[in-house]
């Protein structure tokens, strides 16, 4: 009579090494999925092209006046971060649960850590490429003047990294919500779209009712968009923010809270599916 044993797990160095190798596999799978490439990777750029073409003219006063193409750029960057981390990853993992991919992986020696190193690496690489494309379109087609000082780019970098990490962990947690891969898009996309509209991605945040601003302030997208506005727009635009300031300390605190919450939720909700005997 034979007994089944759990697959032997690798040590930490090999786990990390296999996870890094898996990033390449995840990227190939990502770019082979045409619908995912459009609705996650290209979507922010497509929406930016639409908004920057339709809404022309300038906003602001005096030397701090900027084009509408510049004004919409921070929100679309924030929206792209949210799409990459939350929408793209949650649907991707939900589909892999449904089609048996996780069950097959669960019978191999690789650990969940290896799997998620690959996923997080995929999200970061695609998000960086997505931002590069969006910024290139803004500069080349609409002559947007990007910040020239290191301080603004440092702000851009930490908001990008902290925001993307938070959204990635939330995407892992949200993948537990759909009942199947077929319903994943129907469950996730409306939530993501709603948050984009109330968080300053498509509509100026200051134009929203106060109660809706308060709702948006609970979620990370609002804070990512606020941080990106601080990095890209002239400092005088801070008067349009709640309290008349960029509140970058609060941006960092809220994103850190969501990073911790995302880690706890992802650990609590993710199940490594193994093949049963």
UniProtKB/TrEMBL annotation:
<keyword id="KW-0812">Transmembrane</keyword>
<dbReference type="InterPro" id="IPR047817">
    <property type="entry name" value="ABC2_TM_bact-type"/>
</dbReference>
<feature type="transmembrane region" description="Helical">
    <location>
        <begin position="184"/>
        <end position="205"/>
    </location>
</feature>
<feature type="transmembrane region" description="Helical">
    <location>
        <begin position="69"/>
        <end position="95"/>
    </location>
</feature>
<keyword id="KW-0046">Antibiotic resistance</keyword>
<dbReference type="InterPro" id="IPR052902">
    <property type="entry name" value="ABC-2_transporter"/>
</dbReference>
<dbReference type="Pfam" id="PF12698">
    <property type="entry name" value="ABC2_membrane_3"/>
</dbReference>
<keyword id="KW-0472">Membrane</keyword>
<dbReference type="InterPro" id="IPR000412">
    <property type="entry name" value="ABC_2_transport"/>
</dbReference>
<feature type="transmembrane region" description="Helical">
    <location>
        <begin position="153"/>
        <end position="177"/>
    </location>
</feature>
<keyword id="KW-1133">Transmembrane helix</keyword>
<feature type="transmembrane region" description="Helical">
    <location>
        <begin position="37"/>
        <end position="57"/>
    </location>
</feature>
<feature type="transmembrane region" description="Helical">
    <location>
        <begin position="116"/>
        <end position="141"/>
    </location>
</feature>
<dbReference type="InterPro" id="IPR013525">
    <property type="entry name" value="ABC2_TM"/>
</dbReference>
<feature type="domain" description="ABC transmembrane type-2">
    <location>
        <begin position="35"/>
        <end position="269"/>
    </location>
</feature>
<feature type="transmembrane region" description="Helical">
    <location>
        <begin position="246"/>
        <end position="265"/>
    </location>
</feature>
<protein>
    <submittedName>
        <fullName>ABC-2 type transport system permease protein</fullName>
    </submittedName>
</protein>
């Amino acid at each position: 009579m034979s007994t089944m044993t759990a697959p032997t797990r690798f040590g930490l160095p090999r786990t990390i090494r296999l996870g890094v190798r898996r990033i390449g596999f995840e990227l190939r799978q990502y770019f082979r999925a045409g619908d995912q490439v459009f609705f996650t990777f290209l979507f922010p750029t497509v929406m930016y092209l639409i908004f920057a073409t339709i809404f022309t003219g300038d906003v602001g006063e005096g030397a701090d006046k900027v084009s509408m193409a510049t004004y919409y750029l921070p929100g679309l960057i924030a929206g792209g971060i949210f799409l990459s981390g939350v929408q793209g990853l949650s649907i991707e993992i939900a589909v892999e649960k449904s089609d048996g991919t996780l069950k097959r992986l669960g019978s191999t020696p690789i650990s969940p850590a290896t799997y998620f190193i690959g996923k997080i690496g995929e999200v970061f690489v695609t998000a960086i490429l997505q931002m590069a494309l969006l910024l290139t379109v803004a500069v080349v087609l609409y002559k947007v003047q990007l910040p020239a000082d290191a301080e603004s780019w440092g702000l851009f970098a930490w908001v990008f990294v902290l925001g993307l990490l938070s959204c990635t962990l939330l995407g892992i947690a949200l993948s537990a919500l759909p009942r199947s891969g077929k319903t994943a898009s129907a469950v996730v996309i409306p939530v993501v779209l709603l948050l984009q509209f109330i968080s300053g991605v498509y509509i100026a945040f200051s134009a929203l009712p106060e109660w809706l601003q308060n709702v948006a302030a609970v979620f990370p997208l609002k804070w990512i968009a606020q941080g990106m506005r601080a990095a890209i727009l002239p400092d005088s635009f801070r008067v349009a923010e709640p309290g008349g300031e960029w509140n970058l300390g609060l941006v960092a605190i809220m994103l850190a809270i969501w990073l911790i919450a995302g880690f706890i939720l992802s650990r609590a909700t993710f199940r490594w599916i193994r093949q049963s005997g």
